[in-house]
Write a structure and sequence with these properties.
Layout: H1 3-29, E1 33-37, E2 40-44, H2 46-64
Antiparallel strand pairs: 1-2
Helix pairs in contact: 1-2
Length: about 70
């Protein structure tokens, strides 16, 4: 794996840990955050971070593939 891919994997692994922590915290506290996204206000809860975690894991797997 070249240096740029290795750095990307390291970054994504840190992000995954952050998403796991946020999802656990929000699920324990029963918190849903309201976030402004452009003109819309959306609710972010534990499932939001679980989805981001899945996406990050897919990227890590793709970056680790040889080729």
């Amino acid at each position: 794996m070249d240096e740029s891919k290795r750095l990307a994997v390291q970054f994504l692994e840190k992000e995954i840990k952050t998403y796991i922590a946020l999802a656990l915290y929000l699920s324990k506290e029963g918190i849903k955050e309201h976030v402004q996204l452009g003109d819309k206000e959306v609710v972010i809860g534990p499932t939001y971070y679980k989805e981001r975690m899945r996406e990050a894991r897919k990227l890590v797997n793709e970056l680790r593939k040889p080729g």
